[in-house]
Amino acid sequence: MAQILSADARTRAQRRVRWELLVGLVRKDLKVKYQGSVLGFLWSLANPLMLLIVYSFVFQVVLNNGIPKFGIFLLSGLLVWNLFTGSVSFATDAVVGNSGLVKKVRFPLNVLPLTPVGFNLVHFGLQLLVLVIVMLVMGFTYFLGWGLLLAIPATVVALLLTVGLSFLVAALNVRYRDTKHLVEVALMAGFWVNPIVYTLSQVQPHLHGWHEWAYFLNPMAGVVVTMQRAFYADDAVANGKPVLADPGYTYYLERLAIGAVVSALLLWLGLRVYRRLSADFAEEL
Amino acid sequence: MSDIAIHANEVSKRFMVHTERATSFKERIVRHRQAAQEFYALRDVSVEIERGTTVGLIGPNGSGKSTLLKILAGILQPTSGSVSANGRIASLLELGAGFNGELTGRENVYLNAALLGLSRRETDRLFDAIVDFSELEEFIDNPVKHYSSGMYVRLGFSVAVHVDPDILLVDEVLAVGDEHFARKCLAKIAEFQSEQRTILFVTHGLGQVEQICNRAIVLDHGRLQFDGDPEFATEELRKILGTDKPIERPDIVPDDSLSFGKVIFSATPGGEPQTEFRAGEPLAIRVPVHLTQRWVDTIDSAHAVVMGVGDLPIWIMNATKADLPRHSGEWMLDFVVPHLPPIRGRFVVAVQLSTADNEPIAATRTGHAFRAEAGHTDGLMRVEYQIHSAEGVIA
Question: What is the ipTM of this complex?
């Protein structure tokens, strides 16, 4: 029968099982998504590729924003934004969409909002890899350097925020189904609020003094500009202003720090709300 | 490990039945006070289950059985009161919950096992046993969307019972699958019983409760009505359901010229009606019959059959032409047993009148039962026996 385990070993074993469950669920989602499709994972490149073509046309050709290598600039910010937005919008349905499971099986409910995050993280990693390969093939090597390491703290902050909001919206959506609609609208607005298709330097003239710090209370703003610094990494100039806000590192780390604090608070809130509401999930669904 | 496997202390569960439930912020704001009705699915239910017992949880539909099971499984939280469980719980509230049709049987086994708290390594070790038990070797690499519902359930049950639970909570799932698999499930449960695991299951199969449970709990309208011996529990439930009386069947008669009166059980013919009898006491079964001369001439014999559960004939009493009255009008046929044999249970009586060629003419069946008690607890009948033992060689 059951082995006698120390409390510590038991906790560790439980944690491992929970991790394995999460990995299993992510794997399931990936598998189910690409089951029976010939191109499989290549389809996940379709969305950024399509945006790349459309936005390049709109912003470079029609609006003539003058950002050199606009495609790389766009993707530097867009991929991490997609990680965030894809996770959070899937997470709203994470509990509601698994009602059969929640009502019939006792399992660690925390894995539910984490699954879409894991799912999108896999895509993010692969898309980033494709971006790097394409850049190297095209002969852009200037981004290879210490600045590239900025991508790590930026991704960490993005994940903190993503996980926190995922827990929050997954729990709220069980009680109030309009959370889903609210999230959709907010994410749509978020795309334009963050400097993804335009540069931070185009926004800066409108931010005076503390306004700029307030701007970076939105953690994704810091994340997006840092990712641009890491991958775009060009001292190119558009309309007489540098495309990147700052050539150094500290500028970004400071802004990421603000984002990290805000994200950590949201994560705390999200976990708290989720824990409180999760006791009644089986009943509310 | 403590000897108490499950402890529920004054558990109540209240559901709010929202006539119009606020599922949006707008509604929440517009209607401050929500139209809601309280509904208690469970009220002050206290249960203590010792390790190694098999407990049947029975009750009418909507009596709170599944709610109690879900609270014990940790899926629902009690509104008041507390529950505690000692050991690993596996709940089979729905077999194959969480199966994904797109995935193969193999992948679903791993995923389902992970949901039930098994590590990948443990699942690796158990995989063959799981597949073996489900008898789905050939199909294990096919997507489960192509499975029949029976196969689906077999795989689900197989995973659940291999999780190595100390406490197994089962909700009406044993009724699924074909007889072969149902037997396998029962055999698995018997194995669990012999391994001193605790089993609590919800069922409507009262025969099953009497067969495999040591104990049964009856719930009605969320309250605990009975807790104890399965046989008394099923009787209690039958009373609640109103099925404690045998099914009334109309008498079979050729026409109005022959009819039966109400069959009466008593100690002496014509005595005070009674329904409880003890072994060794006399039992008289009085059958009133109205008939015309035509039937007096044709009826050659009468048979009274005393039947137990499932209409199993226990004994038969025959009356020949010589025993029967010769006049038309009212007959009182009395079948008298001077000393009731040492049996126990509830019995009904069927009476049949036949011709000389053994052709049935008319039949009646008691709409009520009598109870016999012989002062023993196991088996239908008490038998005198001796035991001899000696050293020997098994040939």
Answer: 0.82
